[in-house]
Amino acid sequence: MQKLLSRYRNWLTAITGVLIILAFSSKWFFSSEQSSTYLLFVASLVGGLPIFVQAYQALRVKVISIDLLVTLAILGAFVIKEFEESAIVAFLFLFGAYLEQRTLAKTRSAIKNLVEMVPETTFRKLHNGDFEEVSVEEVNEEDILLVKTGGKIPVDGEVIFGSGTANEASITGESIPVSKDLSDKVFAGTILENGTIQIRTEKIGEDTTFGKIIELVEEAQDSKSKAERFIDQFSKYYTPSVLVLAIIVWLISRNIELAVTILVLGCPGALVIGVPVSNVSGIGNGARHGILFKGSDVITNFSKVDTMLFDKTGTLTYGNPQVAQTIYYSSDRSLAESLLASVERESDHPLAKAILNYYSDSVVRVIDSTEVIQGGGIVARIQNHQVLVGNSYLMNQYNIPFTNQMKSDIAGMEAKGNSIVLTAIDGQIALVVGIRDQIRQGVKEDLETLKNMGVKNLILLSGDNQGTVDLVANQLGLTEAYGHLLPEDKAEFVRKRQASGEIVAFVGDGINDSPSLALADIGIAMGNGTDVAIETSNVVLMNSDFHRIPHAIGLAKATRRNMIENIFIALLVVVVLLISILSSSWMNMAIGMFVHEGSILVVILNAMRLLKYKRK
Amino acid sequence: MMKKAILQLETLACPTCMQKIEGAIKSVTGVDKESVKVLFNASKAKVNFDASVTNVNEIVKAVQAIGYDVLKVSEK
User: Fold this and answer.
1) Chain B: residue nearest A103 by CA?
2) pTM of whole model > 0.90?
3) Membrane-crossing residues (chain A) (predicted)?
4) For chains A and B, what is the number of CB pairs under 8 angstroms?
């Protein structure tokens, strides 16, 4: 019965609406009071039925619901033969619920898009080696699945056959495809852009990395702030008290019309839904921009943050050394580059990787012989050239001359924190490469923006020596900078600033910073989807993208403002209704219901603005 | 033995739905009343229950009895 009613609820709503229109036209155009009353009576019944049933079901589990208030209001209107009002109240209540459902679906669309990253079906290997299409829910651990080009990967597992490239943006935020070969791990919610692979299933459903991310977002959207918990408590007692109030008014005044009007006006609506919809929209907007907010308390705290602490390596810098500076002392640049790159190809030194990345398109030459000089570098012969690649110790061993210009250039690079790689060709220094962990692009501008957004203290905390730390701090315009800190020192620093009444956010890259991330009011992980980063922090930046922090703060502030607006709208509506019921003659239950449903839609529409939030 | 049930419900729209569904699940004997959690936006209900006293079908039935569709159930 109730299933049928809920399925055809929209139809019942439409029929009620049509009946009301017919009733009014027969009254105005045919002056047929009789048939109009009859039609309105039927409309009240059709529209009232689903509301009655819901009220009854709620009562059975001891909940006094809004449906009960409306039911009593409609019955009360029947008693005083106000069929016009009862029909309109029933219709508006149903139609309002319909519109709410439609608009709410919009505010939830962000998370829905995420969930759809996991496919519905997949191909599972049978005993005879064939593949059969099955629903993803039927897949068990250890099952072998087939994924083809363009397919979505349904589970976490290991590649046991074939190879390809996967886009793991949904997990890491990084949209550059990752190559997947034998025994590589693949993740649910990622897309195989190229190739065909067979996977041995390791984790399914909610246990996959992607499943955990979804669960976090879902829990965040429904986690309640202190304000919401208060409103929840409030509304639990509010609805029954409206009922009691209406009964008291009726007992005293014997005025049924006044009593049912109170029932309708007392329906809790905008107040209950206003804050959660702001939240959902805000968190949804974040999720689409690679920012995971873990709950609405996070948003409230984040919008008030006045001190931000940054880890250096991996947060303000890229975290992996890159070529920062090159100086050529030879006229044949391409020869020098090519020889250096060819030698570095033979090396597994960490700096070699940075050099190869930098000179990735230079010509690779065949090496005739190489010799590694411990603590110095490499000596190689390439096509009749003697090539030395290494530090100044190596160059001194081979009596390579340095001009004063070279000496001062190298000293300058070292002062900027570079590691130096020298290249000498046939006894002459040809190329000096400076390699360092570089500051992320645009960080300076982002920090400037944060200052303008009201974050007063921007502080660098690092394990590095104070010299390097000061250098970075000056370059970026940070307010304070401290070096030589261990993870526990950083945590202690967080505690100290909190004790002095500041709201502290800590931005770090996860594992060694996790104590500080957990301790800070807001822990922001430059996450690449690792469990530790996601679990200990309050905000996760999916792509390790520093640039998203200003958006995150702006969004948090906008969301908080939006919540306050919604609470204000809701309270204003209650006050206006109360005043008008006491002082005006035009207020009746139909108008009351209209205002009530209207105010709910207004707060939802207001919250939806957050979905489009962009920082100017 | 305690188990956890996750119910995917039809899209929830009204705020009082949560109270109703919470009440319905709590009315099933054998569920841990403290653990009942209805996620409004995700339209999900999560609850721990004693598998020796009740089972997921009982919980699903209770939710359906008050008029909400259960689209998917998983337990672990």
Assistant:
1) B13
2) no
3) 12-30, 36-56, 63-80, 234-252, 258-278, 567-587, 593-611
4) 81
